[in-house]
Amino acid sequence: MDMRTVLRWAPDPARFCAQDCAREWAPLLAPPGTKPNIRYPMGFEKAAEMPPAEDQITDPRKAPDWTVIEGAAGPQWVYKGWHLVFTRRAAGGSAPPPDDITWNTLKFVPAPPRIAAPGFVATAYFGGAYALTDRDGRVLFTGHCAAPCAWRPLPAPMASGGLGDWKVSLSGDRAEWTFKGQQVFVSEESDPHAIPRGGRILRPQTSSGENR
Fold first, then answer.
1. Using CA atoms in the order 95, 97, 102, 104, what is the torsion angle rounded to 10 degrees?
2. Shortest CA distance to 121 belongs to which of 8, 195, 47, 205?
3. Spatial separation of the C-alpha atoms in residues 155 and 137, rounded to whole Å
4. Region for residue 143 given its phi and psi (left: phi exceeds 0; alpha: psi -120 to 50; beta: otherwise)
5. Phi-psi category of 23—alpha, beta or left, where left has phi over 0 and alpha has psi -120 to 50?
6. Which residues of the chain have a pLDDT value below 50?
7. Does the predicted TM-score (pTM) go above 0.70?
8. Rounded distance between C-alpha atoms, residue 88 and residue 2, angstroms
9. pLDDT at site 100
10. What is the pLDDT of residue 58?
11. Can you tell me the distance from the alpha carbon of 200 to that of 134, in angstroms, rounded to the nearest whole number?
12. How far lies 164's CA from each of 115, 117, 205, 208, in Å?
């Protein structure tokens, strides 16, 4: 199912999906009888002249991920407080035309995985998967670095005993982290999620112990 949110340029986003748009896209309606629990600051079409109920959220910044608004066609789902959700009425590709500035695809991002790694190692979601990063958000990677190697090793404290597959190597001039016996490096690219050619991004392990 192609599910998208309409980009908001005004307090009432319904105006951006009418006529031709409404023939192609259908609002994602909540089940019949669902009570709306959010209201845009300046209303929403037929609800614009009605005072908000006491239990309605009027500040979208404080809304949970999914709420229901009194939409033009009935109670309609809203994502993250602002974004009205629509679905394509017929089959079609999910990529919008290059000049389209109306829609944003609604993407699923899984919950961050639990990792067994030193405390400074974090995760970041990009390119459709989670990867391991340092505390500054720079992606970690392994790979064969031909001499003279210009990649920056991941520094480790001399006194650390390691954690699981993470070990401290003292074979060089400075203590460095290794993962499963491979030297770990930190991206120094202008894009912190990019790595040099020949590198392999470190990703959280699956339950079987394999990298995703």
1. 20
2. 205
3. 15
4. left
5. alpha
6. 7-10, 14, 45-48, 98-99, 206-208, 212
7. no
8. 6
9. 53
10. 65
11. 15
12. 11, 7, 12, 15
**Is 121 strand, coil or helix?**
coil
| Element of type H or E holding 23 | helix 20-24
DSSP string, 111-149: PPPP--S-TT-EEEEETTEEEEE-TTSPBEEEE--PSSP
In the block, residue with structure tokens 């404290």: 157
Residue among 151, 128, 127 nearest 141 (CA): 151
pLDDT for res 89: 79
Tokens of 194: 């990019």
φ/ψ of residue 22, rounded to 5: -65, -25
Q: Which tokens in the block code for residue 142?
A: 């392994």
pLDDT of residue 46: 45
Structure tokens at 86: 């629509």
pLDDT digits (tens, 9 = 90+) for 62-87: 778 888 888 778 888 888 777 777 78
Cα–Cα distance, 68 to 7 (Å, whole number): 17
Q: Which of 149, 151, 133 is nearest to 192 (CA)?
A: 133
